[in-house]
Amino acid sequence: MKNRPLHGLKVLEFSQYLSGPSAGLRLADLGARVIKIERPKGGDACRQLAIKNMWADESSLLFHTINRNKESFAADLKNPEDIIWIRRLIREADVVTHNFRPGVMEKVGLDYASVQAINPKIIYAEITGYGKEGPWKDKPGQDLLLQSLSGLAYTSGNADDDPVPFGIAIADILCGAHLAQGILAALIRRHKKGMGALIEVSLLESLLDFQFELLTTYYAGGEQPVRSNVNNGHPLLSAPYGIFETADGFLAIAMVPLKKLSLALLCTPLANFSQDDAFSRRDEIKQVLADFLKQQPSAVWLERLQQHDIWSMEVLNWQQMKAQEAYKVLQMEQAVRVGDKDIITTRCPIRINGERLFADKRAPRLGEQTEKIKAELVNQLI
């Protein structure tokens, strides 16, 4: 991957599960050499975190999705001999990442100050659950728990629904992206000024940033956003914004003036509402629309809506999405060879000069490159 922007950079990843490794995955996609530092027994805990009991060789399918294109170096951080090797690696590294709880890296002598003393220009990037200060700092940094504490679970679903979590590990994914952004910014500054940096992000801060639109409104008015009773799509947006059932599926309708929507759908009851009613009578309008759209299939409504240039789309499941030509032309799928079979996963979503970034190198076995990396370090001393 010599033609990629981060070729020649070495990243040491003291991270496990999703947030830290997802940042490392993006850096690897962009050409960096990412070396996972793993416990000799068990390694990254995500190796054993099987979703729906799905495995690829001795590690979980989930582990392979976020650790492809990396190397593995097995080291016991409580073993003085292994720490010697780690310190040698740090001297040659550009970036160190970890997502341990506050205090863990300090106990093993690998906190920022200690690592900076070894390599003054290091970019040291860390993820915590809630930051390193305050009464929540030692709480477990798990995605669902963060969604719950951050208020995010009250943004989805209808007004009378219980709190609804996202169906993905959104805190981990966002926080990993923020970590990668911080690392890239620090690398640019180091190139300009020769300075290292400490990059700190937390799952909680990433989820608060994710809700900036809702929180800014709350800070201004002091009122909790109210979800629609009917077909909620966004608690701050007026009717018709939401997802509606049709005779054979579901339809998403975004922002559109009510009169224009009434005309496009030939929905006479909608004409009884003015645009000033769009928020104050949001639930009434949505109920009228919900009842009306059940009368015809999605294709009928889409044809009418698109003729009037109204933002609307059919709601697809993954099988339906994969059948679309629009999906196929993106070429988002790639194969990673694990043992005697291929795993199909997604590629890096970034393109550079029109080139899609594919990487078919599987995730490493635990400690697979340990001896190779040690030999490289020895040769550098000769």
Task: Considering the chains and any ligands shown, give keywords for the structure.
single chain; alpha/beta; Rossmann fold; six-stranded parallel sheet; three-stranded antiparallel sheet; 16 helices; 15 strands; 16% strand
Summarize the structure.
The chain has 382 residues and is an alpha/beta fold. Helix content is 38%, strand content 16%. Strands 5-2-1-6-7-8 form a six-stranded parallel beta sheet, with helices on both faces.
Describe the structure.
The protein is an alpha/beta fold. The protein has a domain at 10-210 and 354-381: 3-Layer(aba) Sandwich (Rossmann fold), CATH 3.40.50.10540. It is 38% helix and 16% strand. It contains 16 helices and 15 strands. The chain has helices at residues 19-29, 61-67, 80-92, 104-107, 112-118, 143-149, 170-193, 203-210, 212-221, 258-265, 277-280, 282-293, 298-307, 318-322, 325-328, 370-381, and strands at 10-14, 33-38, 55-56, 59-60, 71-74, 95-98, 123-128, 197-202, 242-245, 250-253, 312-314, 333-338, 341-346, 351-352, 355-356. A six-stranded parallel β-sheet has the order 5-2-1-6-7-8, sandwiched between helices. It has a three-stranded antiparallel β-sheet with strand order 9-10-11, with helices on one face. It has a two-stranded antiparallel ribbon with strand order 3-4. β14 and β15 form a beta hairpin. α7 (170-193) crosses α8. The longest helix is centred in the middle third of the chain and has 24 residues, at 170-193. The radius of gyration is 25 Å and the shape is elongated.
Q: Mean of the pLDDT scores?
A: 93
- Overall geometry: elongated
How much helical structure, as a percent, in the residues?
25-40%
CATH architecture of the domain at 10-210 and 354-381: 3-Layer(aba) Sandwich
* Main sheet makeup: 6 strands, parallel
Which value, in Å, is the CA radius of gyration? 25 Å
CATH class of the domain at 10-210 and 354-381: Alpha Beta
Number of helices: 16
- The total strand number stands at 15
- Give the CATH superfamily of the domain at 10-210 and 354-381: Crotonobetainyl-coa:carnitine coa-transferase, domain 1
- Uncertain segments are none
